[in-house]
Design a protein that fits this description.
Radius of gyration: 13 Å
Shape: elongated
Strand content: under 5%
Number of strands: 0
Helix content: 55-70%
């Protein structure tokens, strides 16, 4: 897996995941929507940690700087 996510992309994903987590924790989101967004938040965190997004490879997007 080659990295295909830039720093700005990773920061945005982590911020979105944190906001989703806070909304779920404070019970602003609940039920099915909370589950779906919670899974999306976890995916955002994992892809940010490994700097690789499988969807980007399918679409052909690369936001990281090449060496």
């Amino acid at each position: 897996m080659k990295a295909n996510m830039g720093t700005a992309d990773k920061i945005i994903r982590v911020l979105i995941a944190v906001v989703i987590g806070v909304l779920i924790y404070t019970n602003v989101l609940s039920g099915t929507l909370a589950i779906v967004l919670g899974v999306l938040g976890i995916v955002f965190l994992l892809t940010s940690l490994v700097s690789f997004c499988p969807l980007y490879t399918l679409v052909g997007i690369k936001t990281c700087k090449t060496k």
